[in-house]
Amino acid sequence: xxxxxxxxxxxxxxxxxxxxxxxxxxxxxxxxxxxxxxxxxxxxxxxxxxxxxxxxxxxxxxxxxxxxxxxxxxxxxxxxxxxxxxxxxxxxxxxxxxxxxxxxxxxxxxxxxxxxxxxxxxxxxxxxxxxxxxxxxxxxxxx
Length: 143
Hints:
Layout: E1 2-5, H1 10-20, E2 25-28, E3 46-49, H2 57-65, E4 70-73, H3 83-89, E5 92-94, H4 103-118, H5 130-135
Parallel strand pairs: 1-2, 1-3, 3-4, 4-5
Helix pairs in contact: 1-4
Organism: Olivibacter oleidegradans
InterPro entries: D-isomer_2_OHA_DH_cat_dom, D-LDH-like
Pfam families: 2-Hacid_dh (PF00389)
Protein backbone atom coordinates (compact mmCIF):
# COMPACT_ATOMS: atom_id res chain seq x y z
CA UNK A 1 0.00 0.00 0.00
CA UNK A 2 1.06 3.59 -0.53
CA UNK A 3 1.06 5.58 2.69
CA UNK A 4 2.32 8.82 4.16
CA UNK A 5 3.19 8.87 7.85
CA UNK A 6 2.99 12.27 9.53
CA UNK A 7 4.67 13.54 12.73
CA UNK A 8 7.41 10.91 12.62
CA UNK A 9 10.36 11.26 14.96
CA UNK A 10 13.77 9.65 14.45
CA UNK A 11 13.11 6.67 16.73
CA UNK A 12 9.76 5.91 15.08
CA UNK A 13 11.30 6.09 11.62
CA UNK A 14 13.83 3.37 12.39
CA UNK A 15 11.16 1.00 13.78
CA UNK A 16 8.68 1.64 10.96
CA UNK A 17 11.31 1.04 8.29
CA UNK A 18 12.44 -2.16 10.00
CA UNK A 19 8.86 -3.44 10.53
CA UNK A 20 7.87 -2.57 6.98
CA UNK A 21 10.79 -4.48 5.41
CA UNK A 22 10.16 -2.70 2.08
CA UNK A 23 6.67 -4.21 1.82
CA UNK A 24 4.68 -0.98 1.56
CA UNK A 25 5.53 2.31 -0.14
CA UNK A 26 5.94 4.56 2.90
CA UNK A 27 6.69 8.27 2.91
CA UNK A 28 7.81 9.28 6.39
CA UNK A 29 7.78 12.97 7.30
CA UNK A 30 8.29 14.85 10.53
CA UNK A 31 5.62 17.45 9.72
CA UNK A 32 2.24 17.31 11.42
CA UNK A 33 -0.84 16.69 9.30
CA UNK A 34 -2.71 19.90 8.54
CA UNK A 35 -4.11 21.77 5.54
CA UNK A 36 -0.65 22.95 4.45
CA UNK A 37 0.91 19.46 4.57
CA UNK A 38 -1.87 17.70 2.65
CA UNK A 39 0.19 17.61 -0.58
CA UNK A 40 2.48 15.02 1.04
CA UNK A 41 -0.31 12.45 0.80
CA UNK A 42 -0.98 12.99 -2.92
CA UNK A 43 -1.17 9.61 -4.65
CA UNK A 44 -1.43 7.72 -1.36
CA UNK A 45 -4.40 5.66 -0.19
CA UNK A 46 -3.39 5.58 3.48
CA UNK A 47 -2.21 8.16 5.96
CA UNK A 48 -0.57 7.30 9.26
CA UNK A 49 -0.90 9.88 12.00
CA UNK A 50 0.10 10.45 15.59
CA UNK A 51 -2.20 11.20 18.49
CA UNK A 52 -1.40 14.89 18.09
CA UNK A 53 -2.62 15.09 14.47
CA UNK A 54 -6.25 16.25 14.58
CA UNK A 55 -8.58 14.99 11.84
CA UNK A 56 -11.71 17.09 11.76
CA UNK A 57 -14.45 16.87 9.14
CA UNK A 58 -12.94 19.45 6.79
CA UNK A 59 -9.54 17.74 6.79
CA UNK A 60 -11.19 14.34 6.24
CA UNK A 61 -13.12 15.76 3.26
CA UNK A 62 -9.86 17.04 1.78
CA UNK A 63 -8.19 13.67 2.34
CA UNK A 64 -11.09 11.85 0.68
CA UNK A 65 -10.86 14.20 -2.32
CA UNK A 66 -7.15 13.34 -2.60
CA UNK A 67 -7.91 9.61 -2.71
CA UNK A 68 -7.14 8.64 0.89
CA UNK A 69 -9.26 5.64 1.91
CA UNK A 70 -7.64 4.58 5.17
CA UNK A 71 -6.25 6.25 8.29
CA UNK A 72 -4.05 4.64 10.91
CA UNK A 73 -3.40 6.43 14.17
CA UNK A 74 -0.29 5.35 16.03
CA UNK A 75 -2.16 5.88 19.29
CA UNK A 76 -4.70 3.85 21.21
CA UNK A 77 -7.04 6.83 21.47
CA UNK A 78 -9.07 8.04 18.51
CA UNK A 79 -10.39 11.16 20.25
CA UNK A 80 -8.41 13.30 17.78
CA UNK A 81 -10.33 11.85 14.80
CA UNK A 82 -13.90 12.68 13.81
CA UNK A 83 -14.95 9.03 13.46
CA UNK A 84 -18.53 9.88 12.48
CA UNK A 85 -17.33 12.00 9.56
CA UNK A 86 -14.81 9.33 8.56
CA UNK A 87 -17.64 6.78 8.46
CA UNK A 88 -19.84 9.12 6.39
CA UNK A 89 -16.99 9.57 3.92
CA UNK A 90 -16.19 5.84 3.76
CA UNK A 91 -12.73 6.27 5.26
CA UNK A 92 -11.59 3.30 7.34
CA UNK A 93 -9.79 4.08 10.60
CA UNK A 94 -7.48 1.86 12.64
CA UNK A 95 -5.51 2.39 15.82
CA UNK A 96 -3.01 0.56 18.01
CA UNK A 97 -5.36 -1.18 20.48
CA UNK A 98 -2.58 -2.80 22.49
CA UNK A 99 -1.72 -1.75 26.01
CA UNK A 100 1.88 -1.90 24.78
CA UNK A 101 2.26 1.58 23.28
CA UNK A 102 6.02 1.27 22.81
CA UNK A 103 7.50 2.65 19.60
CA UNK A 104 8.46 -0.87 18.48
CA UNK A 105 5.01 -2.38 19.07
CA UNK A 106 3.27 0.60 17.50
CA UNK A 107 5.39 0.25 14.37
CA UNK A 108 4.60 -3.47 14.17
CA UNK A 109 0.85 -2.83 14.64
CA UNK A 110 0.90 -0.09 11.99
CA UNK A 111 2.47 -2.41 9.41
CA UNK A 112 0.16 -5.24 10.48
CA UNK A 113 -2.83 -2.97 9.80
CA UNK A 114 -1.45 -2.12 6.35
CA UNK A 115 -0.87 -5.82 5.60
CA UNK A 116 -4.45 -6.74 6.54
CA UNK A 117 -5.99 -3.89 4.53
CA UNK A 118 -3.85 -4.80 1.53
CA UNK A 119 -5.18 -8.37 1.81
CA UNK A 120 -8.74 -6.99 1.87
CA UNK A 121 -9.30 -7.96 5.49
CA UNK A 122 -10.59 -6.15 8.55
CA UNK A 123 -7.90 -5.06 10.99
CA UNK A 124 -9.80 -6.67 13.87
CA UNK A 125 -9.44 -5.06 17.29
CA UNK A 126 -7.57 -2.19 15.64
CA UNK A 127 -10.65 -1.34 13.57
CA UNK A 128 -12.36 1.90 14.56
CA UNK A 129 -14.95 1.86 11.79
CA UNK A 130 -18.56 2.41 12.83
CA UNK A 131 -19.74 -1.00 11.55
CA UNK A 132 -17.12 -2.95 13.47
CA UNK A 133 -17.52 -0.97 16.68
CA UNK A 134 -21.33 -1.12 16.68
CA UNK A 135 -21.49 -4.85 15.89
CA UNK A 136 -18.34 -5.85 17.81
CA UNK A 137 -17.20 -7.58 14.62
CA UNK A 138 -13.51 -7.94 15.42
CA UNK A 139 -12.24 -11.11 13.80
CA UNK A 140 -8.50 -10.71 14.29
CA UNK A 141 -6.27 -9.76 17.19
CA UNK A 142 -3.66 -7.07 17.39
CA UNK A 143 -0.12 -8.27 17.19
